[in-house]
Design a protein that fits this description.
Layout: E1 20-25, H1 29-45, E2 53-58, H2 64-74, E3 79-87, H3 93-112, E4 116-123, H4 126-131, E5 133-135, E6 138-139, H5 140-161, H6 177-200
Parallel strand pairs: 1-2, 1-3, 3-4
Antiparallel strand pairs: 5-6
């Protein structure tokens, strides 16, 4: 418990029973395949059973939101990881694809309530993409998988801890905004400390 009875969520995710979909583009397959490898390895390292991971491919990043919506609406998955790679060319096509793909994925997540992690690379060059797909700057597929599991855990903790419509007998009763902000900062620091412990293992 934090100040004035504010409750701090402590996610305790059971990863063994999770069902996670990885949706990935075929375009720039050499890079995207490495992102997939990173995501799958992270999920399994965190305790997911291989049979709890489903991989599906689409032509490019533009097609990711539609597949994400179908999967989210199916109710079969606890979360979705979207992976792709878009490299800037000579026209504004790059901006359209990157912006609308990201917007679509966010819209699906907000409308469905299913956590979606966006691991679509938007790079100025192929070298930048390679560096972020298992190169010197890490693997964004791994990061997307880690982010998804953390989000699933927080959402699950919220659903099991609170009835959001009856919290404190009303949405604003007795809450001080400064105390709420302090509590949110405490939660952020706790999550960062938890992540540092994982990396130190």
């Amino acid at each position: 418990m934090l100040r004035s009875g504010i409750t701090q969520l402590d996610p305790d995710l059971d990863t063994e029973s999770l069902q996670v979909a990885i949706i990935a583009s075929r375009f720039n397959a050499g890079v995207v395949d490495r992102l997939i490898q990173g995501a799958v390895k992270t999920l399994i390292d965190q305790g997911l059973a291989p049979q709890g991971i489903a991989l599906m491919r689409v032509p490019g990043a533009w097609e990711l939101p539609l597949l994400a919506k179908r999967l989210a609406d199916s109710g079969a998955f606890d979360g979705i990881i979207a992976l792709g790679c878009v490299v800037r060319g000579e026209t504004a096509h790059f901006d359209v694809i990157v912006n609308e793909s990201g917007r679509g994925l966010m819209q699906v997540s907000l409308e469905s309530g299913v956590p979606i992690s966006n691991g679509v690379l938007a790079c100025e060059s192929e070298a930048q993409a390679i560096a972020r797909a298992g190169g010197e700057l890490g693997n964004k597929g791994e990061e997307a998988a880690t982010a998804l599991l953390e989000l699933i855990g927080v959402v699950e903790a919220v659903e099991t801890t609170f009835d959001m419509l009856e919290l404190n007998d009303g949405p604003n009763s007795g809450l001080d905004i400064d105390e709420v902000m302090d509590a949110m900062e405490d939660m952020r620091q706790a999550l960062e400390a938890q992540e540092r412990k994982k990396k130190a293992r």
